Amino acid sequence: MTDIVLHPAESLHGRLQRGRGCAARRAAGTPGTGELVYDCVVHDPRWDTLEDRGLYYARLICDLELGLGPVVAHLFDPVDHDDPDEDRTNLAVDVLARLVRLGRLEAAAPLRRYAREGGNWYAALAELVELDDPTLAEGLDEVAAARCDDHELAWLCGVDGAVTRKWAARHPRIAAARRPELRSHEPRAALSGRTDDDLAVLARGHGEEVTAAILELGRRRSPLVLDLAEELLPGGAHDGPLCRAVRDLGARALPRAREWTAERRSYQDVGIDVLAAHGTELDAPPLLEALETCLAEEDWDLAGVPADGLGRLRSRRAIPPLLHAWEHSASSGLRVHVLGALTAIDPHVAEPYLLEALWDCEDGARRIAAGAVPLEGEARDRLRRLRHEDAEEPCVRSAASGRLISGRR
């Protein structure tokens, strides 16, 4: 994927790139917005490709009554089969699928064509399966059966719906892929008779049971997890299972977590996780320092944890860096954490951000906003749209519906 060029955070282009709600709200009244939307879809601006943008840009295309030409041209650019990077077209494929959900059914034809001819054909095929309309997916079972390997087919057919059922009736291989497999579970039964010390020995080894042993110690909330963390984390060994096991200890890990954070150990991020989830007011200063460090270093993926912790502790000192993160972060995912924290700390300060978030690209932000935004004027109208729009995520529709029914201001 080519390097992402983000425009200034205060510009309309920059806000559209970041999926900001304020950009979507003012888009209709700003000349030239359509070209900026096309630019965002064609030059995927996401800091992390897991971030949501598809529905955001699809809504803008609908609201601005834009054509699909530039999006389709991007998919079928001559470089498509020469560029192995699927990120070049993932967003455009997602946008077309979202447009279909929004009622722009003309988006289905290029999506079907790309599933047959495109370099990133699997992404288009998966979107058509998820749309779950057998008419839109008609004939594409031949593509799935011919081009998917066993792993791809299993993922594709993991979506149980009308499309995969119809395909399975015609293709034995697809039918086999739809059957739930008997998967081996974590070898907990084999470890249940071992003592904590035995498991710690296994955790220090190199066999297949290392991860299971660490997770079993965490499940038992054994303090040996903390010793293993101090021993193994500096070398980068088994980071994932150890972090999970430490979190499983809950508040029992607080004393050690405070040491790791105060001494700035190489694995202090694990300590910050614990402080954020279980710390007291005494832990607000290191959480605030961690947040400010993450923002200064643009380490957006780590900033969400201290933001959550500061929100849980209702630390008013966190408001300035949280507001800075909202305005300037390249990560839309971080805004979800920021909005939750601001709402917990001071709902009055959060009010304008809650209103903006009803148009945000992240469903997590829209869900929080739907549950907390002052119920008046523009917010009420937006909640009605979120409740009734089939393309909206279920969690957001549910939050919007509940809020409108309750009438709580």
From TrEMBL:
Q: Which Pfam families match?
A: HEAT_2
Gene3D superfamilies linked to this entry: Leucine-rich Repeat Variant
- InterPro entries xref list: ARM-like (IPR011989), ARM-type_fold (IPR016024)
* Protein name stated in the entry: HEAT repeat domain-containing protein
Q: Which organism is it from?
A: Actinoallomurus iriomotensis
